[in-house]
Amino acid sequence: MLLFEEALKLVLDEARHINPSVISLPLLDSLNQILAEDVFSDTDLPCFTNSSMDGFAIRYSDNNSWSIIDEIPAGHFHKVDVDIAGAVRIMTGGKLPENADTVIPIEDVDESETKVFLKQGVQIRPGQFVRHSGEDLLSNSLSVSKNTLLEPRHLALLAMCGKDTVRVSEPLKIGVMTTGDELIDINQKPVDDKVRASNLYTILAALKKLNMRTRNIGIINDDKVKIKDAVSAALNSDLDILITTGGVSVGKYDYLKDVFRELGVEVFFNSVKIKPGKPVVFGKYQNGNEIKYVFGLPGNPVSSYATFRIFIEPFLQKVFGQSTEQPTKAILRSKYTKADAKRHFIRGILSRKDNVYYATIQGKQSSNNLAGLAQSNCLILANEDVNTLNVGDEVQCIRI
Questions:
Q1: pLDDT of 353-398, one tens digit each?
Q2: So where are the chain's domains?
Q3: Could you tell me the end-to-end alpha-carbon distance of the chain, in angstroms, rounded to an integer?
Q4: Verdict on whether the full-model pTM lies above 0.90
Q5: What architecture is domain 328-399?
């Protein structure tokens, strides 16, 4: 049985074998996609020297009054010869006349029909309220880096760089199936020993959050032939990754580990010294030059989600050149004890007060407590060599 760090290293090392295709999308369709190219500005930003305020453009001097000689609205620039005695009314974003170097905000002056006067007590500085050409970004400078997850703020800059289409990494196609005779779909009412198949929707939702293309393979009964047929069909489809939940432990009807091997999946590990989530499978299926990866997650719903968060999400981030979010250091507000040498991922609530993070353990830690998971926002780490976490200890928390 592998330690967590050993298992995670195997997972991340394999991520290098997936090279997503590159596609071109209209700018707005690229939101939440991964940029597949470095984008360089095709112009200075700002494109021209302009006013950051509504006011008057002048050539700086120690004057306190000026004659109003012209007006430049934004988008209606024309040449004006500005001398020390003259002021040009200018609007925010308006291009500065060549000889002007300073802007006085309109609230700092009084006006007559032909003159503008500095209000008493107001002092001006040379160059104030002027945005110079290229001060944000020079032409041919890197504007947005390859592997950036494109958010609205990035699209704003890409738009200013004239990118109406953007090259992005094509999302992976990932299938999800769950196994178990006890499972029913979520539109059915549980009776007797039946349970709604929440795992299917948890994992599909987690993949959608990462902008992957998902395929709901559905619920497969605990029938080895049916499971083998479903897994074989998935491995020989256009999917890049297959994720299963349930059927990977040591029970009589846990067929998936055998099915994977029988179908030629190279299994790197099938259990890890963690809690929750000890029975977790990671493997590779290769058919010629085509490689697909398989993750077999536990059936307990909290275990299934936790193993997705600590293995599959970092794997996908590595595939797309994303940095894995580092754990947050926090002060523990609850005591926790464990009697094994596993790494525990404890559901908790991370909060912040006076720039200090605090972590509180959230209720019962059983692997089927979805209510507790829904109320949590982090996993608190208790390492293998730690038996007790005390109130006041510094802990690391993975946000969920």
A1: 999 999 999 988 999 899 999 999 999 999 999 999 999 999 999 9
A2: 4-20+171-319, 22-44+136-169, 50-131, 328-399
A3: 26
A4: no
A5: Beta Barrel (2.40)
